[in-house]
Amino acid sequence: MVLSLHNYTLIAIGVLAIITGYALMRIDNEVDGFISLYIAPLIILGGYLEIIYAILARKRQS
Length: 62
Known about the structure:
Layout: H1 5-28, H2 34-56
Helix pairs in contact: 1-2
């Protein structure tokens, strides 16, 4: 396999972070709300960065 179990776990965490960010954006349901304007986009960005890291990460060989 190209990716290890650790990589797939990190990808799953990233996907959950993205889903959580969009859910927070929907729950707040305000254009100028603090959560939908500041917190949710940071969580979504963190999720995407986590997925990119999970795809590029390689296990170190000792």
